[in-house]
Amino acid sequence: MSWVAGAERYYADFEPVIETLASHGLSLHRADPSTTVDFITDEVLSHRLWHVCDEAGVTIRHVSGSPVATEANDFMTVIASETGDVVFMTPNLLYQAAAFEPMIKWTLINRAQSPGIDDGDMFLCNDPWVGAVHQNDVAVFAPVFHGGKLFCWVGASIHEVDVGGPAPGSFSITARDVFEEVPPLPPVKIVKNFEIQSDIEDLYTRRSRQPLLLSLDLRAQIAANNVARSRILEAIAKYGADTVKAVMGRVMDRAEAQLRARLRELPDGVWRHVDFQETAFAGDRGIYAGRLELTKAGDHLHFDFTGSAAQVGLINSATSGTRAGVLAGILPLLVGDIPWALGGLQRCIEITNPRGTMLNAEYPAAVSMGSITGTWLAHNCAHAALSKMMLCHPEHGRRALSGGGGSWPAMQLFGWDKTGYAFVTQFQEANLAGFGARSFADGVNTAGAYCIPSARIPNVEATEFTWPLLVLCRGEAIDTGGAGKWRGGAGGKFSFVLHKTNRNFTHVSAAFHVAVPNGGALSGGLPGASVVYSMQRDSDVLARLAQGQIPQEIASLSGTLDILPPKSQTEQGRDDVYAITFFGGGGYGDPLDREPESVLHDVAEGFVSRTEAARLYGVVIEGGAVDRAATQARRTLIRADRLGGKVPAARRDTPAAVPEGGIGLNDYTMLASRRLTCRCCGQDHGPASENYKLALVMRTTPIADLSPTMADPADFIDEPVEFRSFICPGCGTQVETEVALAREAPLWDVQLVH
């Protein structure tokens, strides 16, 4: 069956395919190489086409009935070339943009002869081995014809709340293979000659617990594609097909050229990162590593995931999902000010991703959670490695971000309202994760996820109006942002009870970074807190509400606290309170370098407790003010303790400047004359040819000690995991940190070519 392995190759050279298409009667419109476009027309038309793409996205929000699209912007619209290269995309769920190219190319190869590709057609696909990130991300894409030739493609995808399968929300937490999940659909013709094919629609919606919502979203996608198609044809009528096509090509060429120029400014080298997923399926107690080695040479990036864990359980993605995670890592971080024309940007990128791993799972692996597992893991690794690379340049280092929003904490809810109507929803409050800190500023509190730049959450009133529940609390959680010179953004908290329903709710919860935190903190910062799923069972919440009280913390309630595992399905009764604390962003820099007044402000605003202010930041607060002398003494004591009681060497007030010809790895380490040294005290950290971490003092800390909200990994996994701090042996500065398997050697993060 050709479609099983159809998307496992990247079609870099499509010319032989084009000859085959012609034999099937399908002609592609190719740009006339002699077409010239003046600067003004180029600017006006490129912006016009971008707005066409955006208008398609607005159409989805206007037509869709799903809060996933209307509130959280978990959708994507694109305009792609005649061969599927993405030229324009909206700033919504970035993973979904990368899925269109392999899906369109697959369709050209496998559908041109039968059932054919004609004007007025649209294809529907949610097959991860063709290009979809996972089965819930359903794409509808349409060819745009002009003069009898296929001119380009337009596409719209939405994360659907439920597309079938054994579990509400289609996340099958017990699945061992795809046959225990919702079956994926390879590209099928859902629209023919501008008419919906009712038999295919019935096949698609029949499997869902929310068929009416699925049908409405299908029409939102069709409407978006129709809007984009008509606007593109209007542009062709005004400017001519060759001019429009030439501008599309120039947008991709410009993006490529600008990215190559940026890469040439950065030093050559290798940057590594390891991130983890735990609990491959409900009841599993394993932990699984995703490993990335990023090599930058000249104007080229090579992402190598060799060594990642074998495919297992349901935490896998097909290779299309890993590619989507890498591209989503690049977009806001490295090319935020460059057009997001994936068709051009990806010419600078190579990905090595061995088959049979959880980042390139072979059919029939379980992949229904791919978007929040394997794909998200690949994104975390790419984001962290790119940030480490960017820190090695004084200007681009200001774009670097510590890790944040370690995965998407899925909260699928199934139940009945007071009328007996059954519903399924996915809470968008997962967008309450904190952003990581930067090299010059704190992370943004409850900012969302890096892969959804336009992420939002619904109003509480809208949630309560739509579903039979009562929200008790939604706000920022204390001690969740990773400590550092610059603090990671605080994560959020969210709790609710049943309301106006007499039947229990069924919860399906699924995430990773529950047992272990996001390991993407930078330059000696601490990772943000992990996610915590919990249920306060048999509480007195109803009595408290009857008294006019609205409990803000479940700890204040009677009953039994039930901490839910990373993958779980459970019931919520009338006296139960569901609560979740979301990820905080990673910190940047040694926490002892944070301005004491900033810590005081954090305490006053409820982001940091007094206990953690003293323990992690060494800041002593008395009577609402910083005790400067006590703070200085405590910080000196902490640095000495890091060195085993040794008196730390004197530190510079400002890190030493990097000499000409040298490279700063971060705020504390620089490479000059082939050796690494501390920028705070001048301590030698060894030759550039060796892992500099081995020259530092390594201290290990239990994961649970990083934050009062952090779980003990041993509650969920069997493999020992530890948090490591790497300390300058001279001045006691915390230079680097990592989360690692206890049995593994320190990771060689940065290996520069110098």
Automatic annotation (TrEMBL):
Keywords: Hydrolase. It is an enzyme of class 3 (hydrolase). It comes from the Bacteria. Its EC number is 3.5.2.14. The keyword Lipoprotein does not apply. It holds the Pfam family Hydantoinase_B. GO terms for molecular function: N-methylhydantoinase (ATP-hydrolyzing) activity. Residues 38-591 form the Hydantoinase B/oxoprolinase domain. InterPro entries: Aceto_COase_bsu/gsu, Hydantoinase_B, Oxoprolinase-like. The keyword Hydrolase applies. This is N-methylhydantoinase B. The lineage of its organism: Bacteria, Pseudomonadati, Pseudomonadota, Alphaproteobacteria, Hyphomicrobiales.
